[in-house]
Amino acid sequence: MKKGLFLGLAGATLFVAACSADPLSVPNPNSPTVAGASADAAALQLQATGLLRQQRGGLTGYITTVARFGREGYIYTPNEGRNTSHYLIGLAGFNKLDPSGFATGTWGGNYGNLRDIFNLKNVISGQASLSAAQKSAGLGFARTLEALELLYVISTRDSLGAVVQINQNATDLAPFVSRDSVYKYILGTLNAGDAELAAGGAAFPFVLHSGFAGFNTPTTFRQFNRAIAARAAVYYATRGGGAPAYAQAQTAIAASFLNRTPTNAAGMNVGVYQVFSTATGDAQNGVGQNADYLVHPSYATDVAAGDLRASKWTVLGVPRNAPQGLGISTTLSMNVFATNTSTVSIIRNEELLLLSAEIRWNTGDKAGAITDLNRVRSISGGAGIGVSAATAASTDAAFIQALLYERRFSLLSEGHRWVDHRRFGLLSALPRDLTTGVNAHFVAIVMPVPQAECLVRARSTDPTLAGPGC
User: Fold this and answer.
1) Can you tell me the distance from the alpha carbon of 201 to that of 187, in angstroms, rounded to the nearest whole number?
2) What's residue 404's pLDDT?
């Protein structure tokens, strides 16, 4: 992913060099700079495209990682047991994930993207050929991606907090801040981006890929920004933000692309996606047609009779087992991504409806919340499964269970179940399939900060820069 952007920026730097008045002053084409890119309008498109490619590169890894933690799906690679053991067992006997193992996620990718977003903002601000409206649109785009990247980080690290500050000098370490501060930073960044998009005129100074169809102008991209803000505010509401965060979510979702009255699956699937292809130089969906990506067997036993969402998995004729006895047998193969070019949702209307249900329940409109749940249930689940077990008179606990059922089956392999169970204090309800012996499973609460990050911080002379959990 980064290679394509790197080469593109090198080409942009060569263009700048070719126009130089001093033929002996030639920048190194293998070390493109922000200043060089700022002088070339063509580099802006390369940077924007590169950022979207990099975020795409981390999305499927994020989804399959949290799927394992949330007991949605497993990766049963016959010759690589660590794809199971590092997520479900961790350091054997310690109920702790290995900070140098597979289950540290895309930390480096997240912060690599955040560095590139920082550079993109500098390029936009310094691009003399852009109008004020174009700069505003570009900055709004960059801030939205920045907030989304940090939302992936805090969704996996939660109580550990995260680093939100990117310094000009990449070797200057910035401190970790608390979970509360991270969520406030994310929401503030999204709000700032929304204001910039509002002043962004009719078009971006670059082109977005086809996964943003319908959301590829500053005006329509604002709806995407507000959808991510609604998700972030709902997450924050259950992790310390409380009623004020639900109020923020209510305002954000009203300005998103939420459609409360879709009539079919197409209406549920309106949203923003990452796209894949088999074209030369492009990337394929790594979890599409992946025979090793399997669904936890509890999905077949827990789904309501007649629920159409059971089509998200295929029943195998022969059970699959984890290598070396590390997991459990399953006959369910993941069918969410049917091919190696299937799109992957960043956010879509079905999720917004479920966020709306949670927001309405917690802001006094309980009847509206049940209406939202039943809309999802009837369209995605099918009329045959009836209405939700929850009603406007239900307890909060009963509503949460009804909400989690719909989120579990509607958003399978979209990166939510583990996060949902943690934010509602229900991680203990997730299955621990092996409970005894050296390979006993546990449910991770957070992903660790990678050991490499901790080692860098340990060498710092400033003790306040040591990361939590290091």
Assistant:
1) 23
2) 98
Domain containing residue 45: 32-74+85-288+342-365+413-465
- Tally of structural domains, the chain: 1
- Residues 73 and 294: beta-carbon distance below 8 Å: yes
Q: Which residues contact 255 (CB under 8 A, 6 or more apart)?
A: 194, 222, 223, 226
For 280, what's the count of Cα atoms within 13 Å in the CB-facing half-sphere?
0
**CA distance from start to end of the chain:** 29
* Element housing 13 (H / E): helix 2-18
Span 191-208, mean pLDDT? 98
Question: Is residue 196 left, alpha or beta, with left meaning phi > 0 and alpha meaning psi from -120 to 50?
Answer: alpha
Tens digit of each residue's pLDDT (9 = 90 or more) over 147-158: 999 999 999 999
Stated as kind and residue range, the H or E segment containing 60 is helix 41-69
Query: Any idea which residue has 């900070």 for tokens?
Result: 99
Closest CA to 98 of 111, 88, 109: 88
Tokens encoding 38: 């700022």
- Ordered alpha helix ranges (H), 328-395: 349-362, 366-376
The CATH number of residue 234's host domain is 1.25.40.390
Residue 25 placed within a domain: no
SS3 string of 333-345? EECCCCCCCCCEE
Sign (positive or negative) of CA dihedral 236, 238, 243, 247? positive
Q: What is the pTM of this model?
A: 0.92
H or E stretch covering 185: helix 179-198
Whether 39 is in a domain gets the answer: yes
